[in-house]
């Protein structure tokens, strides 16, 4: 099933929704997320956590695509922890965008990466509930002998995500 994009190709998240978009490397995940943030920022306050690119590089991408970033606060710390996100949220924050999820750390130590990700998603769920924000995160799917993010997000392990989509070059497919 392909995602029907609303309002000129942009996703409109439901209240208190966490959505994750998974895609192969270089399929356009950051471009997709930047466009979503631009659209949301027309009427809402947006926090954009850029965990892979610097703020300067991200702003260059916004400018190259002629995207307005007026109501977007960009946080570009490479060592941001999920617990730090709460300090950026205020009563006017409506959307949180995370580029990308697997680079988001936490203050707790875990042996298993799946347990760590479940903890991180639980913290994000608590912010969604407490502050009535919407979260859209992207992550990369690598092909390997280990389960792909697509397979992981389709499992019950990540119950804190409302839905997950795979971004392809010309469409999106729901995987959870």
Set down the secondary structure blueprint.
Elements: E1 18-23, H1 29-41, E2 45-50, H2 55-64, E3 72-75, H3 82-85, E4 93-99, H4 113-131, E5 134-140, H5 149-154, E6 163-167, E7 172-174
Parallel strand pairs: 1-5, 1-6, 2-3, 2-4, 4-5
Antiparallel strand pairs: 6-7
Q: Order of strands in the sheet with the most strands? A: 3-2-4-5-1-6-7
Q: Nearest-angstrom radius of gyration?
A: 15 Å
* Unreliable sequence segments: 1-5
Helix tally equals: 5
Binned, the helix content reads 25-40%
Distance between the termini: 11 Å
Describe the 3D structure.
The chain is of the alpha/beta class and 176 residues long. Helix content is 30%, strand content 22%. It is built from five helices and seven strands. It has helices at 29-41, 55-64, 82-85, 113-131, 149-154; strands at residues 18-23, 45-50, 72-75, 93-99, 134-140, 163-167, 172-174. The longest helix has 19 residues, at 113-131. It is globular and about 40 Å long.
Any key phrases for this structure?
7-stranded mixed β-sheet, 176 residues, alpha/beta
Produce a short descriptive summary.
This protein has 176 residues and is α/β, with parallel strands linked by helices.
């Amino acid at each position: 099933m392909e995602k029907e994009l609303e309002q000129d190709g942009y996703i409109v998240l439901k209240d208190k929704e966490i959505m994750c978009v998974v895609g192969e490397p270089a399929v356009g995940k950051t471009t997709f997320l930047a466009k979503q943030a631009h659209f949301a920022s027309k009427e809402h306050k947006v926090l954009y956590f850029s965990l892979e690119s610097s703020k300067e590089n991200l702003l260059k991408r916004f400018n190259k695509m002629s995207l307005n970033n007026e109501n977007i606060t960009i946080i570009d710390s490479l060592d941001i922890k999920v617990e730090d996100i709460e300090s950026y949220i205020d009563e006017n924050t409506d959307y949180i965008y995370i580029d990308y999820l697997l680079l988001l750390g936490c203050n707790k130590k875990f042996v298993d990466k799946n347990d760590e990700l479940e903890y991180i998603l639980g913290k994000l769920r608590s912010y969604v509930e407490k502050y009535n924000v919407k979260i859209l995160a992207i992550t990369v799917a690598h092909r390997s002998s280990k389960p792909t993010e697509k397979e992981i997000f389709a499992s019950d392990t990540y119950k804190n995500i409302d839905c997950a989509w795979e971004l392809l070059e010309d469409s999106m497919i729901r995987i959870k």
